[in-house]
Amino acid sequence: MTKILIPTLLITALSAPISPASDDPEASFAPAVGNGKRSEEALRRTRRMLHAWLAYADPHTLLLPDFIPGYTRGKRQFDLYTPHNSGADNYPYLVATAFFTDPALFRGRMMQMLRNEVRYANAGYGIPGNLDLKTRQLGPPSLFGAAEYAKDGLLAITELLGRTPWFYRMADMTATLMERAPVASDFGNLPDSGAELNGDVLQTLVRLATMTGDRRFLEWAERIGDAYVREVLPRNHGLPGYTWDFAEHEGPDRMRLRDHGNEIVVGLVLLHTLENDRGSERAAEYRPAIARMLDRILESANPDGMLYNEVRCSDLKPANERLSDNWGYVYGAVYTFYMSTGEKKYRDAVLRVLKNLPKYRGYDWENGSHDGYADSIESALYLVAREPVPEALQWIESEMETLIRFQRPDGTIERWYGDGNWNRTLLLYALYKTQGCYVQAWQEGVALGAHRDGGRLFLAIDSPRPWSGILHFDHARHRRAINLDRNYVRLNEWPEWFTVGENTLYRLVHTSGKEEVRLGAELIQGIPVKAPVRLMLDLFRQ
């Protein structure tokens, strides 16, 4: 059989003569080739979903309704846009999909949708409201809509792309929200009495504090943190609970450990991490309270470490036996607390739940909906990016097969705003398979895959047709975009799998023997490639 010779580019850190990783160079790249097939399928499917949904956009505003005809899980209004649903859960991941698969659409229509959201859904002071797409009737300003849109929508775009127009929408909207916070407390006015909205805003404020250096965002975050650490946690069995009456200083005996409740846990841990990095007095004050909160949550878990949807604060008994598909959101906070404090037991808790994931193959997280699979896989991807536990990696592969099968022939999933979460998880999976690399001018059939072996990164790009484009490498976005000291686990992040340093030199060696030296910043900006091609990346040392 005649072998097809594929151009090979070597990026290496070895100052010694370069030798192939095996006698058969193609064998070294086999895992990358396989990963390329998986990433291509994920991108192809998300692009189909993107265009399927855009067909249902309102022709006047271009905004997307929460539900579209064909939704079968209940009776819903098909011409209503809400910032806390369509804006938070669908639109941001269509923006991300367009960024990776359709740059013209990203620069054009997706930006126009942001302009029109500001134009048509602004219910006052920059706070959005619900918009009836048929009558053009706009509801009152929704602080909940603003909080969800910021935390789940605009924050996700910002974690990926940094400072863009979506960032500025998030910053100003969140500032206005806090200036109009309506719930009086002993610590200042809060956004809400509930753990969800307060947690949403807290997660956004911590990022805005580090990104902007604007003291207001830190002070607002500390206001929420103080209210929970100094009042709610001590009075509520060490847990933040579901809601809290800040006038009567009491709340119901319930704690949600899934979405619509666990947001405050993630927010409090992020705030403690920021305070700890700053060396502030609050870090020492917060630490025992945060530790007790996490200890009690872990105590409430089942023997495998899985969390129940809801427990009682008083005795940790589950309110029902269903398991939370957002288990990894909480465990991400647990791991972040480990990173911040060095307390090994919190890492051990994460390792335990990851190793037990094979027991939950095919588990129906959310009564037959794709959204439970999407959130649970997302949970695992955040964690394996830090702890690549083999059992968890295998579980991700099996559950991705189930998640992918939810896509309908027309490209939609279940025809509600949660379809965006399906896109999100496929994009997260694709970037795992490329180790954070992506190509500009991607087309269907272009398969970029990567495989890490120690300090080396093997990449393969294949295409059924002649193709050329720009290959981009990932960088430390947690530091460059979010300004965090370390890559703490964060809800709505895009994990960093393999990153290059902007000011690190890399040597590129062609099989022909041609060599060139480039900065990591050039690799991030992108290098021209043609398919098929094989690449191996490593650091350069003189």
Key features of this structure:
single chain; 542 residues; alpha+beta; Glycosyltransferase; 3 domains; 6-stranded mixed beta sheet; 3-stranded antiparallel beta sheet; 11% strand; disordered N terminus
Widest beta sheet: strand line-up: 7-8-13-1-10-11
Radius of gyration: 23 Å
| Named CATH topology of the largest domain | Glycosyltransferase
CATH hierarchy, class of the largest domain = Mainly Alpha
Summarize the structure.
The chain is of the alpha+beta class.
Description:
With 542 residues, the chain is an alpha+beta fold. It has 3 domains: 1-55 and 437-473 and 500-542, no CATH class; 57-163, no CATH class; 181-324, Glycosyltransferase (Alpha/alpha barrel). It is 48% helix and 11% strand. The strands form 4 sheets. The chain has a 6-stranded mixed beta sheet. The protein has a 3-stranded antiparallel beta sheet with strand order 6-9-12. A two-stranded antiparallel sheet has the order 2-3. α4 (143-161) packs antiparallel against α5 (165-179) and α12 (370-384) packs antiparallel against α13. The chain is globular, with a radius of gyration of 23 Å. It starts with 7 loop residues before the first strand and ends in a 5-residue tail after the last strand.
